[in-house]
Amino acid sequence: MQRILKACRQRLETLARQFGARQPERAVALWMEKARQQSRDQGLPLSQALVLLDAQLQARWRRYQWRRQGRPLPPTGTWLLYCDAGLGGLARWLWAAGQRAVWCRETDDTRLIQKALRAGAVLLTPDSLLLERRIIRTGRLPTLWVPPTLRVPDQLKLVFEQLALRVAQPRCMRCGGALVPVAKAAVADRIPPRTALWLDQYFLCEDCDGLFWRGTHWQRIRRQLQALGLPGAAEI
Predict the structure, then answer these.
(1) Across the chain, what does the average pLDDT equal?
(2) How many other CB atoms are found less than 10 A from the CB of residue 30?
(3) Cα angle for residues 113, 70, 76 (degrees, 5° grid)
(4) 92 phi-psi bin (left φ>0, alpha ψ -120 to 50, beta other)
(5) DSSP state, 182?
(6) Which residue, 58, 97, 105, 49, is CA-closest to 222?
């Protein structure tokens, strides 16, 4: 807990200076009090309230930078997400929700950070120790801490809320690749006989060549996405 508080305070101090606050310490104190209030009002652990506040401020800072540089804001839901080794379950649900996500099974933190930085990705991690890395504290690598105590559906909801994502067409549940429609006749030998009797629409993953269709399993996933109240879930 203390490690998380220390890392969040350091990131808030950096943000206050980046925003040009004349009194960074006062800005941090106000933000810390806001997190405490949210913790009391919503019954959240203080560490989680700080993470939510940090993500909101990081997003605000990125928007400020883009406007200052005359760059258009990225469209909603266009982030590339790097999930570290401990977030395999979250990565699969992000794929189901149509998000461009990479599950990095790399256990070396330095290499993970380098890969995410080169890719221009947002790093998702349940490892609070990573928050102390300078590249993350300064905001150079956008990072969202995902509390490991949350259930995977709640982790998914947190990521959607903090990055303003919308549910899109599902991606491959094996690797996260895009799914492209394929003629039924072209994959007839790969379709289970019982499925072929009642379903005509099929998809191939452009990365791993996996065959997919919207059967009962997909219907269950869709209902779960809708139950979480994720934006766009009712449209797929």
Answers:
(1) 85
(2) 14
(3) 60
(4) alpha
(5) E
(6) 97
Res 32 pLDDT > 80: yes
In angstroms, the CA 44 to CA 205 distance is 39
3-state SS, residue 101 = strand
pLDDT band for 72, please (50, 70, 90 cuts): low
Lowest mean pLDDT among 36-50, 80-94, 144-158, 210-224: 36-50
How far is 74 from 22, CA to CA, in rounded Å?
30
Q: How large is the C-alpha radius of gyration of the chain?
A: 20
CA-closest candidate to residue 39, choices 30, 51, 29, 28? 51
Q: Which residue intervals of 19-129 are DSSP H helices?
A: 24-42, 46-68, 88-96, 109-119
Q: What is the pLDDT of residue 100?
A: 95
Instruction: Tokens for 113, please give them.
Output: 């950070």
